[in-house]
Amino acid sequence: MSPLSTALLVLLAPLASAVLIALFLRTRGTAASVVSVAAASFVALGALVLAFGGERFTSSLEWFRLGSFAIELGVKFDDLAALMLSIVGVVGLCVHVFSLGYMHDDSAKARFFGGLSIFMFSMIGIVLADNLFMMFIFWELVGFSSYFLINHYCHKQSAADASKKAFIVNRVGDFGFVLGIILCYWKNGTVNLTELGAGHALVYSRLVPLLLFCGAVGKSAQLPLQVWLPDAMEGPTPVSALIHAATMVAAGIYMLCRIHVLMVPPAMTVIAWVGTLTALYSALCAVTQRDIKKVLAYSTLSQLGYMVAAFGLGSVSASMFHLTTHAFFKALLFLGSGSVIVGCHHEQDIFRMGGLRARMPVTFWTFTVAVAAIAGLPGLAGFFSKDAILVLAFGSNKAVFAVLALTAVLTAFYMLRLWKIVFLGSARSEEAGHAHESGVSITAPLVLLAVLSVAGGYTAIYHGAFNGVFSGVPEAEGLTHYFVLATSLTVLLLGAGLALAFYATDGKDALEERAPGAFGFLVALRASFDGAYDYYVAKIQQRVAMALNFLDLVVLSGVLIRGFSGAVEILGFGVRTLHTGRINHYVYWFLGGVVLLWAFAAGIL
Amino acid sequence: MTPSLDSYVMLSAALFAIGFLGVLVRRNTLVIYMCLELMLVAATLALVAFSRFNGTEDGDVFVFFILTVAAAEVAVGLAIIVALFRARQTVQVDQLDSLKH
Amino acid sequence: MEHLAFTCLSVFSLACALGVVLSKNAVNGAMCLLLCLAGVAGLFVQLHAYLLAFVLVLVYAGAVVALFLFIIMLLDMQGGTPWKFRGLNAAAGFVAALLLVTGLNLLAVRGHLEAGPPIGHSVGSSLKLYSYQLFTTYLLPVQIIGFLLLIAMLGVIVLSRRVPQPEDAK
User: Fold this and answer.
1) Does residue A103 contact residue A1 with C-beta atoms inside 8 Å?
2) What is the pLDDT at residue C89?
3) Domain tally, chain C
């Protein structure tokens, strides 16, 4: 079977699964879950076969044409796409298997698995897209899938609100994205990625990459559009793991890497700083969170900031490398938290957990591996990718390096805080006291992801399949190498040590207790963006809307439309008075007509 | 010496105008109708004058037709007026204005 | 001599026509119409159309005006306010009539009507001549006129039918 057909089957299998579930299996949850997991397995298998099979190709088909403008649908399968597809496939499969156990008692299981399948289809579409229009189509589909899945617990008002917020904030970013695509098409005459990258003269402008970056700001939740990601935790945990940690939010980074040929230095600086500030801001917000999923959400935001900063500093490879490792350990963190949540009977407040180390050993050990990876313990995947980014920053922009290093301290800090409060100490609530390990469908993916979190950083295991991407990963020499290594170790020890020492396992947030001022500042910092948006919508946007409403109602409908109809009415009224009903008057009109005809005949008129 | 054709035509025009005046100003339907007949007679006068001055008989023959049509018209018109009187109890034209807007 | 006759007859006709238009009483108007028709018949005679003069008096004056009088009597109008020839309405009508007369005369003048003497000998009101024309050149109009009369007769019958009242059924 040719690689192209394999790729197409990989793309269409989840779609077929979704259609099947939507049409026939709406009430049969178990059957739906089986179909969906089968599709996910096929996708994972197909992805690995394609990636490690070594074939790289492009292919496209014209969809429709309007004169000289044509939209094509096509596949561009290079190393970047192969890498992303493998990540989506493997992590997707893990999440699907996890969902079998996690969503076992859910009443709307079929809807959930249908949503997961649609998401897989949309995400693979983004990965395989060979031009920006096609990517945009699937971009929007992914946004829809996210909306659909966040709203899974649809009877909860908070879930409905969160899904709307996610979709609307994404839409704001997508507006910029669309403008960027149009501008790119206008300036370059094409949006095909192969043609753009072919090296012939591109029209460089500062506006096109920044507008396209808006799409990434929305989708990957950078400042100032990061407000939707923490709220998106209203969705079920597998959704958070797959969409809002590993794959969908990474789509923004992937898109940036695809269009890196269009980048110009001023735009890159902006991108780097947006990423860095996002990383710092989110890390600060994560320190005060009580909900286990919210901590991980802010952590995701922070790591995405790292990836964006890495891209902005000029290295696609570093960015993608961190994306790969992040996908593994972040998915593991989320799935682990899911296991904890379901073990404690759907309790999400970390201060009501505790002592789970003894009761849920598999979860504990895999979670520990993930925490170590994200904090940057040497030897694990996260260490290598983060190290690469720090090396890059040190070489390009020392200010960015400083901020990223500070963020690394905070990362270690809040992750160790989480780890300690959840797993160590003694149980602080009854549910935690009765917690137990869940079945194999929950623990098996955890183990697989833990293995990948450890081994994923050693690029040798990929057998050169992704050399196009990983060959550019920055490595330092000599003094720089040692300095950055020292920095990494310092931040790890500093953050971890502070966390372990500062927080006790007694059920109270030590920061809140001992430094209420700082705690209050961090909480306000977190709420500042939402507050600003609220103010904007309520005061500014609403007023503009009311003004436009007035314009529409009074000026357009009233003066123009009713005005015209009124004028015609008056004219009609005037003409109506000529109908007197009296014959004598009509005879006068008759005479008038005759005079007119005479005048015509005589040549006067 | 016979009067010239112009005189006959002018006379016919005058009779026609008088009939027209009657149609314009009178309010009684029957009187209006009589003035209509007057106009028809004026037309016949003109026709006969022309036929005499051209030496043919076509104009005269045409007058036959006019007379016949006028008679038929009067019959039907008066029947209408009678029916109208039965419905409205009036023949004054300014009271027969149900076509008024 | 002919001129005098013409003048007298024309003045007489015009006067009676004005009488039709300006008389307050409808019956008076009908009488004036009768006299006007008589005057016009005289003019016909002067134009050597003897048969037509006769037919005019017989049909028009005899039948049509009689019918008019009959209907006037039938309708038994009590008449509201008597009508007078004055006011804006009358003035406008007068102006309109003047306009009409002027227009028609201008047409005649501009149209360069031959004011020459009558051609040849008078055709005379030869019945034979008229009927010959009627039955050859003008045969189609004759047939159509016959049809028209039939329809008029039917129309009159239909129009003058009394709508049956509910009381009549008892």
Assistant:
1) no
2) 82
3) 2
Domain with C54 in it: 1-79
pLDDT digits (tens, 9 = 90+) for A395-407: 888 899 999 999 9
> Would you call C21 and B19 a contact, using CB atoms and an 8 Å cutoff?
yes
B99 in any annotated domain:
no
Determine whether the interchain pair A591/C92 forms a contact, defined as Cβ–Cβ distance below 8 Å. no
- Answer yes or no: is B10 within a domain: yes
CA dihedral of residues A303, A309, A310, A313 (deg, nearest 10): -170
Domain harbouring C7, CATH code: 1.20.120.1200
Does residue C170 belong to any structural domain of this protein?
Answer: no
The number of C-alpha atoms within 13 Å of A517 and in the hemisphere containing its C-beta is 0
In chain C, residues with a C-beta closer than 8 Å to the C-beta of A591 are: 96, 99-100
Asked if the structure places residue C88 within a domain, the reply is no
Q: How many C-beta neighbours within 10 Å does residue A526 have? A: 21
Contacts of A584 in chain C (CB under 8 A): 89
Has residue C167 got a pLDDT over 70? Answer: no
Quote the minimal CA–CA distance from C101 to chain A in Å: 12
Q: Return the C-alpha torsion angle C42, C46, C48, C50, nearest 10.
A: 20
Other CB atoms within 10 Å distance of the CB of residue A409: 19
Residue C138 lies in a domain: yes
Domain CATH for B78: 1.10.287.3510
∠ CA A176-A177-A178 to the nearest 5 degrees?
A: 95
Q: Which residue of B has its CA nearest to A574?
A: B101
Return the pLDDT at C20: 93
Q: Which domain holds residue B54?
A: 5-91
